[in-house]
Amino acid sequence: MFALNELTILVHGPVTAGNLEEVLKSIEMWREAYPGAYLHFAASMIERDVSAIEMQFWQQQHVSELEKRRKLVIDQVSQAVDHFSVADYQAPIAPLKFDDKVNNTNKMIATVKVGLENVSTKFCLRIRSDMMVANILACEEDYKFLAQQAVVPDLFNQQVVVAPFFTLNPFLLERLPYHFSDWLNFGQTADIRKLWDVSPVSEIDARHYQMYPHASHSNVLEREFRSRFTPEQHLVSRIASHNGYKKLDHHNEAGMEIETLEVLRRNFIVLDHQRTGMTNPKYDRVKSMVQTRFQCLTNRDWRIIVADGPAKFSETLAWKKFVVWCYLNLKPKLAWSRLRRTLPMRLLWWIF
């Protein structure tokens, strides 16, 4: 079904003198894993992120030194890949949650779009530079499964693959509709372009919950968000609403669970991270966390949703919903700090 000479691997992320060796080793691994495929790298940042306005205040010698280092990095990576591109500077927006973590959503959007401009093959694997998937072609089993179930996409020409972390179950911990992981996409290049054909996130949306209260049904985890939508929702809700599905109003809008799973069922594949050899060292601990079992949808969950439908899948979650309710409502009331940190998760681990 998939031929390597029809595949472009688009890796995107920052490149600096500090991580240059790591980037080059990663490129070697991609070459070894996918001989015959095209390899593109889209840089979100070269050496240092500096706006044109900020650079006006620099002394000329500092500007020259930065440009010299950037050229060195660009030359090294360009020689190792089939195509190298650099995104224009995008300023960070307000943090996604009420914390101080940098929000580079618009930088990611700009980088992916620049990278996709130069992809000419039928299929594309778009992936973060801190990740690896050793055998993405193993997804052929999932496409065959969809054919057996006679599932026809209504957003794309063919279903698009997403990672299980963090493709969220909209019924459980963080009840966020259309939250399908943005770690990677695999599928037809035209479909991936369609998915990423979005405008930058506005500062107004990024600061939504500084100006408006959270919905009354929001749980403690959902109240942590500052932004009206997550980056994942920004992508999926746009294309879904343009094709007949309900437009998302805010990040945890109620009553959209079944519709979310129907969009997932028809148009996406949740990657089997073990079968395909997906690794992300930065998030390795996520795989073994108990919360992951309640937050994220697995390939096995996706197959149940495809075969039985979203409504029947939701009926299988009754016990998990009860445990999540206990976790969210009883955990804050535990008096002892040690028990508050450990007991609920140990209880969940014992149950499951």
Describe this structure in words.
The chain is of the alpha/beta class and 352 residues long. It folds into two domains: 4-316, no CATH class; 318-352. It is built from 17 helices and nine strands. The chain has helices at 20-33, 52-55, 60-80, 105-117, 140-148, 189-195, 203-206, 208-211, 231-241, 257-267, 273-276, 284-288, 290-295, 299-308, 310-315, 318-330, 337-351; strands at 7-15, 38-46, 83-86, 123-128, 132-133, 160-162, 184-188, 268-270, 278-279. Strands 3-2-1-4-7 form a five-stranded mixed sheet, with helices on both faces. A two-stranded antiparallel sheet has the order 5-9. Helix 1 (20-33) links the parallel strand 1 (7-15) and strand 2 (38-46). Helix 1 (20-33) packs parallel to helix 3 (60-80). The chain is globular, with a radius of gyration of 21 Å. The two termini are 38 Å apart. Residues 334-340 have low confidence and may be disordered. InterPro entries: WavE (IPR011122).
